[in-house]
Amino acid sequence: MWNLLLILTVVVTKIVNVEGTTVTITPTCQDDKLTNDSHNAALWMHNYYRKLLASGWAKDKKSNGGYAKTAKQMRALEYDCANTTNSNGAKSTYDLIKGCPRVNPTATNGYSLNFLRIDNHQISEQDALEQAIKTWWGQLETTGLGSDTKFNGNSGITNFANMAYDQADKVACAVQNCAKYGDTLVACQYNKVITDGEKIYETGKVCGGCTTIGKTCSNPRGL
């Protein structure tokens, strides 16, 4: 299903054919070494899940009704590569897994990090991103959040919390296929850090708080 949705949603390709001539399209963000398709897929999946949560359709194991509470001011994420300096999230995220480190990386200062090591060195960029993002978000369905949306670092849902944190508005990802070690590394970083006791997101009427943070919002879209 994901592959079909991505085919319908992602229309940018790395190689196009113009009057019989093959033209290589330079990725709009080169700092993380991903293709445009991979950027679009990662961003689309993140915002899809955030929409699902905001609109009340995200399954939550600890919720009495089976679904997490709606969010009133869930920001849409942008891809973190707008900065032309060396400090953007795309470069920082790539640097964390460059060279296929054997020790799990820690987040860049000022960012939160989701990381997954996949036991397959031949998996494609997009498939690796899809598997990682689904795994991280899956903590909501397998472990659960419940009615109290305050973050607890020992709750087993840190990856979900990083993805769902309503103060975050940027994300950047990177993938490294490590043939020497037989695995693939996937990392995504978010431009805000959530701490214990903070709310992962504000519950309430969908889009009800967007104007208070200077944002427009679409209901039932939720972002």
What report would you give on this structure?
There is one protein chain. By secondary structure, this protein is an alpha+beta fold. The chain has a single domain (31-213), classed as CAP (Pathogenesis-related Protein p14a, 3-Layer(aba) Sandwich), CATH 3.40.33. The protein is built from 6 helices and 6 strands, in the order αββαβαβαααββ. The chain has helices at residues 2-9, 36-54, 89-97, 125-137, 139-142, 158-164, and strands at residues 15-18, 21-24, 78-79, 112-118, 170-178, 183-190. Strand 5 (170-178) and strand 6 form a beta hairpin. The longest helix is centred in the first third of the chain and has 19 residues, at 36-54. The two termini are 23 Å apart. 40% of the residues are buried.
Please give the count of helices.
6
Shape: globular
Task: Say what the CATH topology is.
Answer: Pathogenesis-related Protein p14a
The spatial strand order of the largest sheet comes to 3-5-6-4
The helix-and-strand class reads: alpha+beta
Query: If you average the pLDDT, what whole number results?
Result: 87
CATH superfamily: CAP
Total count of domains:
1
Low-confidence regions: 1-25
